[in-house]
Amino acid sequence: MSTTEAPAPPETADAEPLPLRKTPTRKRLIPYWLLLPGMLWLIVFFAAPLVYQASTSIQTGSLEEGFKVTWHFATYWDALGEYWPQFVRSVGYAGIATALCLLLGYPLAYLIAFKAGRWRNVVMILVIAPFFTSFLIRTLAWKTILADGGPVVGALNALHLLDVTSALGITEGHRVLATPLAVVCGLTYNFLPFMVLPLYTSLERIDPRLHEAAGDLYARPATTFRKVTFPLSMPGVVAGTLLTFIPAAGDYINAELLGSTDQKMIGNVIQSQFLRVLDYPTAAALSFILMAAILAMVTIYIRKSGTEDLV
Amino acid sequence: MTKNDQTQSSGGDVRLTGISKTYGSFTAVHPLDLTVPAGSFFALLGASGCGKTTTLRMIAGLEDPTTGTVELSGQDVTALPPYKRQVNTVFQNYALFPHLDIYENVAFGLRRRGIKSVKKQVEEMLDLVQLGPMARRKPQQLSGGQQQRVAVARALINHPQVLLLDEPLGALDLKLRRQMQLELKRIQTEVGITFVHVTHDQEEAMTMADTVAVMNGGRVEQLGAPADLYENPATTFVANFLGTSNLIEAEVVEAAGEELLLRAADTKLRLPAARCSATAGSGDKVLAGIRPEKMALAHTDDTGSLPDGHNQLPGRIKDASFIGVSTQYVIEAPGLGEISVYEQNIARDGRLVPGAEVVVHWNPAHTFGLDAAQDIAAGADLDEEAA
């Protein structure tokens, strides 16, 4: 027989429920209040311009008479029919630049993450340093670097490398400016940090003991890279290639400054339709086609790389 | 996997000769000779920063020794990279490959050695560690204890000559740790591979290992079977780090025959000469050591009924804590400081409460003697720090 008694329930229990019921409803609303600034941001800066552009793309008319929504979807077909070479070129240039960024950026990010030691932060600052000057100024600088009488062209000519590149069709004669090579180089240069930063972040997160474990389990350094390091850096590879490819495909500054009319990318077409030809519906339609194309490519890419659960 | 298959692939021995490691001006491991016999369970025990992990990593090839050589089964492997050594490591925090499932983690070593049909071996190994149904899970979906077993399986499947374990149980909670200690011991007996186990937990080392090397400050302080180390510590560090010891400063009064007669404060103590590791002539200082559980307490009124020939120290109970199986007393002995006594809870004497005048007594055979030139407190609180 037990002599202990359970403590009596507090007598105020009956009076409690009323104030208790009120607080949850207020608490339930808090997340929505917190979401509000983000939602407003999206509406004002993303949804509204998108809707505006969508309506522009199906308008007809002229600047003098004004544009009206006439549901003229044919603009899309006309734009695509006329400018598909620029679309293909944009995807091609952006793709090559992304591949080059990956080839250059991966070793760099690897060195910073695993070998730089106490120099890590200094090297990271050096990678980001170009951002302190304007995109335009940097690209203009490249115009000087790659100029016909400049050191780069001189060196390439001395080594007869320009003959090789001309044979490949990526340069013309003995110059680099106004050729596909110049535009791709410009894109690669300008977007390299966008590749290095996510790569570095994902490499830096890899536990160095995993490398030791792989070595301990009979993997040579090259095998360790292939079977452990690279698969684990896939989130960085995917993020880096997307952050490079997407802006590179829509870029027009590099083609404008470093290329000629033969290197026009879709960004240049959109820019001139908006600002020079003043054919707003075509420009808007082109923008939407570019957006849809990139969205489709990105979706396929993410599916293919199978990193949905890693990103 | 039958037991016979396993015992045939028994381990190799490890021989370290004059091995040392320095980082700049810091010496992590002083020149060290160590032989681990084939098929034994060997523990490197010490507090963090004592050089035990560095020693292990030099055997694995993950660290290049500054001097000395590493031999595995008689072959000098000092210059070989890790992937060419017949040793495997169970890493602290396991270092399982997060992008591979359990099956592929375990198969990793076999695949790297170009073995095509891994299925049978992997399944048998997963059965050995009782993880068969988990084969297709990712490491992060497993509990700590399960991950630990994967790490063991991933290393053992390669039938290494030596399995190196770097604090393998450090991340587990106490109950699971006890369970895994027995599990690892079972596996080691079953596969017969040489295990070299690094730990800061003296209880773990004593439970599992055949031989324990106690390391301190980059040196091996003492090496031996767990019971031997516990009963006959050679240094104050070992005496304090392995369990608890009462170390009493005393002066040799008479050194004749098989027993030394000591004087501590005003009390005479006897110590078997064979158990004194210090040179003790008349007038020399020594430290007399006794384990707290080897001592008993008697109330001052009962002094007359104590066993004949026991060493006796008078004192007062300062503190008593009831632990369940025993009661741990702290006795203030005049001129000697505090003495710990663990009394089993068989017949509790109601008079033994804080403040009571008592006599601590023990069989002189349980006393050991140490060189008094050492730091009396060496290793005393390291265990808790490291944990």
Descriptive notes:
The complex is a heterodimer of chains A (311) and B (387). Chain A has 311 residues and is mainly α. Chain A has two domains: 20-69, no CATH class; 80-305, MetI-like (MetI-like fold, Orthogonal Bundle), CATH 1.10.3720.10. Chain A has 13 helices and two strands. Chain A has helices spanning 17-57, 74-115, 120-128, 135-145, 151-158, 161-168, 180-204, 208-216, 221-232, 234-250, 253-258, 266-277, 280-305, and strands spanning 59-62, 66-69. A two-stranded antiparallel sheet of chain A has the order 1-2. In chain A, a hairpin with a 3-residue loop joins strand 1 (59-62) and strand 2 (66-69). Chain A is globular, with a radius of gyration of 28 Å. The termini of chain A are far apart. With 387 residues, chain B is of the alpha+beta class. Chain B folds into two domains: 3-231, 3-Layer(aba) Sandwich (Rossmann fold), CATH 3.40.50.300; 245-374, Nucleic acid-binding proteins (OB fold (Dihydrolipoamide Acetyltransferase, E2P)), CATH 2.40.50. Chain B has ten helices and 20 strands. In chain B, the strands form four sheets. Chain B has a six-stranded mixed sheet with strand order 6-7-8-3-9-10, with helices on both faces. In chain B, a hairpin with a 2-residue loop joins strand 11 and strand 12. Chains A and B meet through helix 8 and helix 9 of A and strand 6 and helix 3 of B.
